[in-house]
Amino acid sequence: MIHEVDDGLRRLLGESGLQASGVDVVFDAPTRDWAARRSAPTVCVFLYDIREDAVRRGSGSGEVYDEDGHLVARRTPPRWFELTYLVTAWASRPQDEHRLLSQVLATLVATETLPARLLTGTLAELGLTVGLDTAATGSDAPAASDVWSAMGGDLKASLSLRVRAPLAGVTKAAAPPVTEGLVVRATARGDDTEAGRRLRYTQTSDPGPDGGYAGPRERPPAPARRRRRGDRQP
Fold first, then answer.
1. Which residue range forms the structural domain that includes residue 51?
2. Is 124 within the bounds of a domain?
3. By CB neighbour count within 10 A (0-12 exposed, 13-18 middle, 19+ buried), where does 25 fall?
4. Fewest CB within 10 A of the end CB: N or C in the chain?
5. Of 77, 81, 83, 84, which Cα lies nearest the Cα of 52?
6. How many other C-beta atoms are found inside a 10 Å radius of the C-beta of residue 87?
7. Distance (Å, whole) CA 25 – CA 52
8. Same-domain pairing of 91 and 152
9. Is residue 172 within 8 Å of residue 62, measured between CB atoms?
10. What's the total number of domains in the chain?
């Protein structure tokens, strides 16, 4: 899921005009060594904090059916996570860095959710909203100054970007529906011969929870003939 969020952010920033301007969008840690090797204008989107949104955690499981309406799997509900990014701009002059950062800020503030056309993989399959919160306050993530200190770099103007994205639940395959009848055999004592019959499963017009098959059915025995007065005793 994390790499799919990265891909969506890269596409979003690329469509804002950065790609046409020759600006690179990377997800590296902006350490001093990395900054020394950089040679082109760059927007760095560094992921530094991942936390689960426990309030949105669901329970139970959902059922997955195939095209014929048969139960094929059970899936636990998705779990939601908050991904916090440190967004910085790198260029040869501070004025150029501020221009890039301003362009990124305008794009992110105008986008509350990642458009569905930019989602890939499991994010596209789930069809759930991936929210964006730019320069938000009240987050439990580490402060930007603490992040720069941990990386050994110099403090730099940056944006905090928080993404709320779902992680797909665990899918477990279900047993296939029963399509064959059960064979019942009975053997008399002292007799080597066996008498067997098959209980057949019949398709019903009202499918049941087992995939549309009713239980085993037998023809009911014929009712006993009622004896009338005047009948001879055998």
1. 2-58+76-166
2. yes
3. buried
4. C
5. 81
6. 22
7. 26
8. yes
9. no
10. 2
Looking up tokens 């701009």 gives 89
Q: Please tell me whether residues 137 and 209 are part of one structural domain.
A: no
What tens digit of pLDDT does each residue of 6-40 get? 999 999 999 998 888 889 999 999 999 999 998 89
Q: Which two tokens stand for residue 38?
A: 């950089």
Residues 112 and 190 in one domain: no
Beta-carbon contacts of residue 213 (< 8 Å; ≥ 6 apart): 177, 178, 179, 201, 202, 203, 204, 207
128 and 197 assigned to the same domain: no
Residue 150 in any domain: the answer is yes
CATH code (residue 38) = 3.30.2000
DSSP reduced 3-state for 12: helix
85 and 41 both lie in a single domain: yes
Beta strands per DSSP E along the chain: 24-26, 42-52, 62-65, 71-75, 79-90, 131-134, 159-167, 171-173, 182-187, 194-203, 213-217
Q: Which of 12, 9, 30, 17 is nearest to 103 (CA)?
A: 17
| pTM score, whole prediction | 0.69
pLDDT tens for residues 33-77?
Answer: 999 998 899 999 999 999 999 888 877 667 677 777 777 777 788
Ordered alpha helix ranges (H), 93-143: 94-109, 121-126
d(CA 132, CA 111): 7
